[in-house]
Each structure stands twice: as structure tokens, then as C-alpha cells.
Fold this sequence. Notes:
Blueprint: H1 3-18, H2 22-35, H3 41-54, H4 57-64, E1 76-80, H5 90-98, E2 102-106, H6 113-125, E3 133-135, E4 144-148, H7 151-160, E5 166-169, E6 173-177, H8 184-195, E7 205-211, H9 216-221, H10 233-248, E8 254-255, E9 260-263, E10 273-279, H11 282-292, E11 296-301, E12 310-311, H12 329-335
Parallel strand pairs: 1-2, 1-4, 2-3, 4-5, 6-7, 6-11, 7-10, 9-10, 11-12
Antiparallel strand pairs: 8-9
Helix pairs in contact: 1-3, 1-6
Amino acid sequence: MKLSERIDAFASLGTVLRALTDAERSALETKANQENGWFTPTSVRQAIHGITVLLEPGKLKSWVATYPIEKTSPRTIGVAMAGNIPLVGFHDFLCVLLCGHRLVYKPSSKDTVLLKFIQDKLLEIEPRFADRIQTQERLNGLDGIIATGSDNTSRYFEYYFRNIPHIIRKNRVSCAILQGDEPESEIHRLGEDIFTYYGLGCRNVSCVFIPHELDKQFLLERLAGFSAVMDNHKYENNYTYQKSILMLNQEKFFDNGFLLMRESDSLVSPIAVLHYQVYRDLDDLRQRIRASRQNLQVVVSAQGWFEGSLPFGTAQYPLVDDYADGVDTLKFLCSIK
């Protein structure tokens, strides 16, 4: 297959996904939710929509144009998929196949339904991909590997795949920066960055940097429009558990009935908890962000006013060249000899 044919196949996949009937969507959403209670219909729909945005023909063509893909020799590339949010491994799936490599992937046990559905649709469009895609429980016999996991798992990956080219991704988190005078519309967009996928993704805001004068309870009240997260019993259980722990430890926290907010130096917060850190001035803020940059996937601020940040409400919509952990996946795949 030529590169142009692979691009056309994925562009057609985007068209097919956009044209799914209500019955097809409902059946897929139900099956995914039965496998993973976090994968609600809303989450599945958002994940599929995000993929269709990536697969717009013009974006695909301009994206790959700057890489020497046609000079790249086919290799066998393994991908150990994560499963924290729906279809989180699709970008790696796309990159490996666009580069003309053979893909051997280990699906997450938490997300087998959706990727299998995407794969089947792709093979209907372009059957020649059939001998280039394989699932495997134990990844071996590879020329390169892309693996995503926890900090503990990443150490295992680093050792096990030390002798072959690899991208090993670790835990990352995202944060938001508030000035304190943001209008309600901007706080709603921030809420999307916090609550989409119930806060399970590395692009979800888990910590906010705020000026000392900001009223924390008022901020929580302005997020009231997201109370529907409590309709998911898994989220509700986390909220109840985390509130009990905070009360038991007699820690100070703020509460709006579905989100708990506490001060902490940690960027990582449990589900249903939002951490905050208070900054004195802009220099202090910049220093804090600089010190945390290697652990941050995304920084968001109102309309992207803070340097290097994205606007509120856009964290969960990465561009096709917005690589996880800032590591250029296509460049890596083109470099494997």
C-alpha cells in the first residue's frame, strides 16, 4: 500500500464513523459500557468524535507531509495500550499504520470493544491492512515498542524493552491557571477539562493554580452544571470515599456535593477531588509551572493567556500532531532501522 492509500483509508474511516446510525452508536455504547462502567455513552461519543476530527483528510495529509514516511522500511512495532479513557490508544494505532509498519498491539482489558470496532471498520474499508494488524497478549519479536502505563509499570517496560527502540510513557497530569476574574462561561469550559471522562485522563485538569484572594467555594458553585457526574455510581462511590477520608483525617476541604477541593502540593488528585495551589504573583506562578513541567501533559488558562497553555475547554481535543508526553511518535517510527 502506498502512503496515499493509507491516508485515504483512514480518511474514509472518519467518514464512516461520522455516519454511524443511532442504532449502531447505541449498540456500541452499550457494549463498551458493559465492559467498563466508566465508558458511558457520553464518553464513548466524545472519544469517537475526537477521532473523526483527527481523520479529516486535509489534516492527515498536511500532518504526514513533513516526515520521510515513504522512505521508511516496514518494521514490526508493538503497542501496549492504556485503557483509562475510551480509545486512548487510537493515536498510536494510527501512527504505526500510516508509517507502513506492522502493528502488534496488546489491548487494555478495560478497552477491547471500541478499538476492535474501529479495527473492523478499517478492514472493511481497506482489507490489505489485515496482514499488518495483530493483537498479542505477550509482546515479543519486535523492532520497536510504544508503551503507556503507570510510573511503576514504566520501569518494567524500560527494563524489558531496553534493547529495542522504544517510547515509554509515564503518568502525567494537567493543570489549570486561574486569575480570579474569569467569567462564568470560562469556568464552564474549565469544568469540561476537569470532568470529561470523569477526570480519568492525563489531559484532565487535576490541580488548579489560583490567586490567594479567590473564593474557593464560589469557584465550586460555578461548576454546578456538572453535577450529572454523580449519575455514574463509580464516580459517586469515589466521591463518597474521598470525602470520608478527608473528614476522618480532619483535613480542610471545600465541597459542592460532587467535587471536593483541597489544598495540596501534589498535582495528582484522586477521582472526585480537585487540588489547588495558591500563587503569590506571576513570577511565582511561572516558577511553579516550570518546576512541574516534566510531569504536565497540558496547561490550560482562560483563552490561553498564560504562555504555553491551551484555552479552557480544549484539553480533551488534541491536534493530530499533539503528541503524548511531547515525544514525536511519527519521528520515532520513521527513525527505526
